[in-house]
Amino acid sequence: MNDLTVNRQTFDEVMVPVFSPAAFVPDRGEGSRVWDTQGRDYIDFTGGIAVTALGHSHPELLRVLREQGEKVWHVSNAYTNEPVLRLAKRLEALTFADRAFFANSGAEANEAALKLARRVAVERHGEDKYEIVSFTQSFHGRTFFTVSVGGQPKYAEGFGPQPAGIIHLPYNDIEAAKQAIGPKTCAVIVEPIQGEGGVIPADPAFLRALREACDTHGALLIFDEVQTGVGRTGHFYAYMDTGVTPDILTTAKSLGNGFPIGAMLTTKEVAAHFKVGVHGTTYGGNPLGAAIADKVVELVSAPALLEGVRERSAAIKAKLAELNERFGIFTEVRGKGLLIGAELTSAYEGRAKDFVNAAAKHGAMLLIAGPNVLRFAPSLIIPQADIDEGFARLAKAIEEVVGATNEAHAK
């Protein structure tokens, strides 16, 4: 047998090089703390990119994992199962939806939503109604269809001809949307807060204008809540705080707290256009993932937990304000709940990754949202003590980057 000793260098030797992971290798986690293979501990402000909503090794989720794991993991969609039916009922009771489709990821949920929207338009209006409106800097996944719909060309270029009928508009530009959405539009897909694009919240008036334009032209409004959903903004889904209800909602990330699961939620009338055999998935809706997600939804939808998200949001924004008063490195802090972006000043343009790397050296895990924005998406139940400790470590990291920058300028 080959030597199975592994470390960070092993990644470069055995993995397809589409990622550039950190120098340390996480080994175990508990709550909002992670320990690497060398035993060093880190405060986790990443939440696995807004995924581990209930932190690491949550006892209730571990209990469900063991109980369902001892029953049945997978049966295929030739059969249904009780956990997935309970999960669907719970999500539908919480939302506008009365039909659910389960997949393995946010990309697959968006793929299903976009295919469904096209199918609805063709069956209701004919082949000419196929245009999809999306927005610049948006992100909807890495399948070929979703990456083409996403508004970041760097992710879609270099793979040959892209699907036709996709229009990208400026985010939060009401007039541009009114002019572009028309008789050929089958769907508009929008993130209530652009996550990968820089943590940019939608103006409620912009979302209302999209709803009105879709209604006028018989198009479907899709909310991509892969990152904003399941309590992340302090509301179970972000749409609930906008006064706008979509026709289709996609959700993943926090839904399984790290177990791969995604969902497309919609109405009975729209869902009727996906007949038997029109779309499918092998693993989607498996009983193990559904059981875990059902417990996540039960816990996160509790009003006290959602109120706690809003309280933690205020605490983190206050900490960022203190850092900015000390170092003057942010032009803006924005976002809702525990999806927060801090945009760097021009003096540190393009250097968000430098701060992330320095934070890791000092024991804090941090994200970026593009080259100029530090992104915070921790567990929704991160203790105040971990927020305090994490920001103490982050202050040391910022001090290091700022000091090195000032020294370089002095030379």
Automatic annotation (TrEMBL):
SUPFAM superfamilies: PLP-dependent transferases
Annotated Pfam families: Aminotran_3
Enzyme class: transferase
InterPro entries to which the protein is assigned, alphabetical: Ac/SucOrn_transaminase_bac, AcOrn/SuccOrn_fam, Aminotrans_3, Aminotrans_3_PPA_site, Class-III_PLP-dep_AT, PyrdxlP-dep_Trfase, PyrdxlP-dep_Trfase_major, PyrdxlP-dep_Trfase_small
Catalytic activity: N(2)-acetyl-L-ornithine + 2-oxoglutarate = N-acetyl-L-glutamate 5-semialdehyde + L-glutamate
Domain of life: Bacteria
Binding note for cofactor: Binds 1 pyridoxal phosphate per subunit.
Residues with N6-(pyridoxal phosphate)lysine modification: 253
PROSITE patterns linked: AA_TRANSFER_CLASS_3 (PS00600)
Alphabetic keyword roster: Amino-acid biosynthesis, Aminotransferase, Arginine biosynthesis, Cytoplasm, Pyridoxal phosphate, Transferase
Pathway: Amino-acid biosynthesis; L-arginine biosynthesis; N(2)-acetyl-L-ornithine from L-glutamate: step 4/4; Amine and polyamine biosynthesis; ectoine biosynthesis; L-ectoine from L-aspartate 4-semialdehyde: step 1/3
EC number assigned by the record: 2.6.1.11
Biological process terms in GO annotation: L-arginine biosynthetic process
Residues annotated to bind N(2)-acetyl-L-ornithine: 142, 281
Essential cofactor(s): pyridoxal 5'-phosphate
GO CC terms in record: cytoplasm
Binding site for pyridoxal 5'-phosphate: 106-107, 139, 224-227, 282
Subunit text: Homodimer.
Family as reported in the entry's similarity comment: Belongs to the class-III pyridoxal-phosphate-dependent aminotransferase family. ArgD subfamily.
NCBIfam families per record: arg_catab_astC, argD, PRK01278.1, PRK05093.1, PRK12381.1
Further comment found in the protein's record: May also have succinyldiaminopimelate aminotransferase activity, thus carrying out the corresponding step in lysine biosynthesis.
Name listed for the protein in its UniProt record: Acetylornithine aminotransferase
Species for this entry: Trinickia violacea
Gene: argD
